[in-house]
Amino acid sequence: MNRYRSPILFFFAAFLSFLTTKGQPFSQAEIARWQKQAKQVTITRDTWGVPHIYGKTDADVVFGLLYSQCEDDFDRVEENYLDAIGRLAEVDGESALYHDLRARLFMDTTQALALYKESPVWMKSLLDAFADGTNYYLYTHPAVTPRLLKRFQPWMPLMFSEGSIGGNISVVSIDRLKDFYEHRKTSWIYDFDKFERDPVGSNGFAIAPSKSATKNPLLLINPHTSFYFRSEVHMVSQAGLNAYGAVTWGQFFVYQGFNENCGWMHTSSGADSMDEYLETVEKKGNSLVYRQGNTQKPVRTQTVRLPYKVGNGIQYKEFTLYWTHHGPVVGEKGDKWVTVSMMNTPLNALEQSYLRTKAKGYQSFKEVMKLNGNASNNTVFADRDGNIAYWHGNFMPKRDPKFDWNQPVDGSNPATEWKGLHGVDELVQVRNPASGWIQNCNSTPFTVSGNSSPDKATYPTYMAPDAENYRGINAVRVLSQKSVFTLDTLIAAANDPHLAAFDALLPPLLNAYQTVAGDAANQSSDLREAVQLLQSWDKSYGTGSVGTALAILWGEKIQRLARSRVPADQRLDYLSFTDFTTNNTSPQEKVTALKDVLTDLTRDFGTWKTPWGDINRYQRLTGKIQETFDDQQPSIAVGFTPSAWGSLAAFGARSYPNTKKRYGYVGNSFVAVVEFGRKVKARSVVTGGQSSKPGMKHFTDQAPLYCAGQFKDVWFYPEEVQQHVEKTYRPGE
To answer: Taking the complete model, does pTM exceed 0.90, yes or no?
Structure first.
């Protein structure tokens, strides 16, 4: 997994890292080259501020894309690379040290530089254009002060090669890493609160011609991310690139979007693409060895000094890192060390991420998937030929099915070794199902198309351990009920307000009240009225709905109580956690939680009859990565809820130390619906607007649409763009 690092290459990578930080002055030759390339790029901002970037070559477009991204939000471009290359601690201090260590365990600048040198000519031209476009922005904007990266290097995207919100390594616990490398007994446990409250993931719907009013296939693109994580762009070259959609800041490919031939939506996957191994490690002389079969192999070690900020200076902490052939050591369990095997082919991943944006249709898209470079996502797909399709994951190791791959396996047993990769045709998938629709909401693929879904019995259990969730249940209900879809009704489906979790959670509360109502402590008129209101509530969200507010605030309280009773080593999915909550809280505890909600609402808002929209708000004040919120400043009511309750349009919000209201920070981001006919028709909306700068026109111009679940028209063809031009310019002008 980790290549041998030659001393010369290691020194060269370290030198480049030094230059990245210190800011090697841009040479006249570089500046002249950038100015020449800038003349080959045109950026047209439409009246929503969306950049349509045109160039002769793909590299020209990438150059213009990175320049325009930096114009809109340089801070997030830089932040994503500080994250990806493991240098956050140099600006955020010691608290980020193990975040950086995790990045270095799986990939470092030495490897990235070697991969850059090995890259095919076409990819190297894009990597060069990435660095050149970003550096040209810094050259032409001397007032911009980077936190750390004063020069961007072309190898950097090889350390940020997918587009998902956290990438593969985000599942590796930083707390467990810290315990191991600081030689402490592990304190790592499953974080239920994060699992239940953060609506990360995504929704993808595809509608076949048989269910479309125009007989053209339709696609819903609905990623859930932290707010402002991606921007909306259009990339067009004379070399056949014509992709529109969401680009993660600092990357040069449309991650979720469409071209004139097809569209692709990625949802975070539970497909088992990585494994933990329990290694038997012992000391042999002055070295460490680990067992594999009847042999012992040396543990590979490397000593690193990681920098971190202290005041205005930098200090260093030294670590000895460990690897076996399975991968890096990330923790321990009992007397065994834990290693992780996962996809470690950044060049394949980056090639696949880019090439799929130029796919011509189903077969072309499927051919790109043979690179096996997508380890963290499912794919919902539609094309202009009428195909709709779904693949559950992509990078999928072959394993011996007799082992439980949901648990760490014995690394010393040769039978646990991976046996190559499954081909694309072997993945859990569906194409053109008889149901006429496809949905995935980070849930099991075995309900992806209703009765036309794949047969679970025909696949190894390790391929799709994903559980059902309430968004998946709601999506199946919505798509099954309608016989014909248009772009408008697909938007309505994406915004369906039913909160399926309360179909299961609410009846036990109402029954509990009947059980304890005779107790004098439970006979207040407010409590009785609240119970009656919940009995009549239609279990749908709305800004004016008091029932939504009562149900969600009660659900949070009772689940928080239940979470405290879950055994530390027990993992529960959404549905099983609902059952656990129902069965492990008493009738009186259920009713007391509702009484506490009434008290809290009266204290914070003056009345317990507070509509959901008075609590749940959208606000953007500063544009900073860490936004601040203020109850005294304007905000917008939002009906959407966290996805844990089954809300397809997700909106995760919380209160802050100085607020009573809740403000959104994660959920729906770039959302689009696309129709693939003779010409592509699409509509979209983003969280807030294209710009991160307060006071600018496009800072929150889309917020009213976003909060109401409404969309704007996408201008895809040149004649459409030209009718809605705000400004046209070249980089540097």
So the answer is: yes
